[in-house]
Amino acid sequence: MEFPTFSSALPILHQAGFLTRLIPASEENPTEQLLVVMDDEDSTDLKRLELTFLSGLEDPFVLQLFMGLPCSIQETYKVDLSRFILAVNNHVPLTGFGLKEPEMWVYFRHLMPVNSQGLDGELLAQTIWLIWYVVDRFSGIVKEVAEGNKNLEAGLQALEENLQHWQPTNE
């Protein structure tokens, strides 16, 4: 069974205002990859969401939406960070914050099933909007805990304050 492609979703993503770059499949990567730039004019960090279908999974296919988050993780804060990431993921509607060990980097990863009829561009656009919102809203606090600028208790307090103003929208 052939992997779905991003071609049907590209016009919808462009109409939604996303900047994309399609990387064709190759010998090294058996599926094409789509990069979506997720930028905020107020941010100095350029965020890039990487979309690729996971090899070996079909019926349904599984689309991985992945974003590495720039921060310097201190080993001494790893336990607090792990517990904090669990708390964040328990409160957001679309989970995906994680910690990759032993490399010690933070990421956001979401897996989306795709049936044999192909990729639903509207659903993908909505999923990307929600990922952007979650990452934009919570990655700063995750970074502060990762770098030791907030301990677990202070991070949880900041999370609680942030959740009081939770209103995801793509407008």
Set down the secondary structure blueprint.
Blueprint: H1 10-15, E1 19-23, E2 33-38, E3 47-53, E4 61-69, H2 78-91, E5 97-100, E6 105-114, H3 121-146, H4 152-163
Antiparallel strand pairs: 1-2, 2-3, 3-4, 4-6, 5-6
Task: Give a description of the structure.
The chain is an alpha+beta fold and 171 residues long. It is built from four helices and six strands, in the order αββββαββαα. It has helices at 10-15, 78-91, 121-146, 152-163, and strands at residues 19-23, 33-38, 47-53, 61-69, 97-100, 105-114. The chain is globular, with a radius of gyration of 17 Å.
Distance between the termini: 37 Å
| Spans of at least 5 consecutive residues with low confidence | none
**Spatial strand arrangement across the major sheet:** 1-2-3-4-6-5
Report the average pLDDT across residues: 85
Largest sheet: 6 strands, antiparallel
Proportion of strand residues: 15-25%
Order of helices and strands: HEEEEHEEHH
Instruction: Please bin the fraction of helical residues.
Output: 25-40%
As a whole number of angstroms, the C-alpha radius of gyration is 17 Å
**Which structural class do you get from the secondary structure elements?**
alpha+beta
Number of separate strands: 6
SS element count, helices: 4
Outline type = globular
Overview in brief:
By secondary structure, the chain is α+β, with helices and mostly antiparallel strands. 34% of the residues lie in helices and 24% in strands. The termini are far apart.
